[in-house]
Amino acid sequence: MGRRLYQDDDVFRHWMIHLDDFAREWCGESVIDVIHSRGKADAFDRTAHSHPAIFMVEYALARCLIERGVRPDLCLGASLGSFAAAAVAEHVSVEDAMQAVVAQAEAFEGHCERGAMIAILADPALYAQPFLSERSELAAVNFSGHFAVAAPQAALAPIEEELRARAISFQRLAVSYAFHSRWIEPAQAPFAAATAALPLGRGALPVVCCEQAAVLDELPQDFFWRVVRQPIRFGEAIAQLERSGPHRYLDLGPSGTLATFAKYLLPQGTRSTTQALMTPYGQDEKLMAAVLAPAQPA
Predict the structure, then answer these.
(1) d(CA 70, CA 151)
(2) Given 30, 50, 79, 255, which residue is catalytic?
């Protein structure tokens, strides 16, 4: 998650350290230390670590681009990415967004039963089958051949067993709770109480909301809860944007997953493009250079 950029890029390192100072204050430990002490094969599914880490990396990447002249016209956020999108678009200060991220992680860890999400490579119509619909909730529809479900711990093995029996490819996601489902609802009240005074103003840029599949000029007060409770409608959000395209989509997430999804969603013949800034395979500096190249003078 950006170790090379942290070592070599002054802007990225500055923002990571700045936000880590707040993490130390609110969580009592350094998120940077947690990220950099892991090996690639180590699990990274404790919400108190992964929530702020993902936010920090996404926001620091955005600042790297902005300070090099690559400025967004719109900020799209899917699930937790909505916190970074709102901060980059200046609907909320980055410090307030960081505090909300930490508060939400604490609410999940303190009030919710364990669970997970399963990404499934199949038509979303499969969800109507009882082995899924009776044990889980539809958490995301990404494109015609990819969706995700959320379920409590006890339901995960039976779902995966049935998927194997049907020879359907799937992957359990590295999360500890059934995000985007009713099983996280016990966290709603404590999270709302912790963020009641959070100012959500009209931002400098619109936010593309994957919960509503809409472009928002102003965020509702419960925005940061809805984006993790309601299903992710990424495919619908991209379809909405393509009606006013073409666009250059830059994925600032730590895995590059949404850039891959977008490639499946872009209509044939579009002039829209999609690029990732970071992948699990490294080469962050090479990817950054590729994104910056078109903005540089000939």
Answers:
(1) 39
(2) 79
